[in-house]
Amino acid sequence: MSKDSQTTLAGLVGALAVIAQFIAGKFKVDLGLTGDVLSAVTLIAGFFVAWKVGKSGNNVAGTLLKMLVIGLVVFGLAGFASAQTWKDGNSVKVAWDAEPNAKLYKIYKKPYPTGAETFVMDVLTGVNATVTIPEVGRWLLGVSTVATVGGVDMESTTKCWSDDVSCVFQGQTFGLRNLPPPSNPKNFRKDE
Question: How far is the C-alpha of 16 from the C-alpha of 48, rounded, in Å?
Answer without folding.
Answer: 15
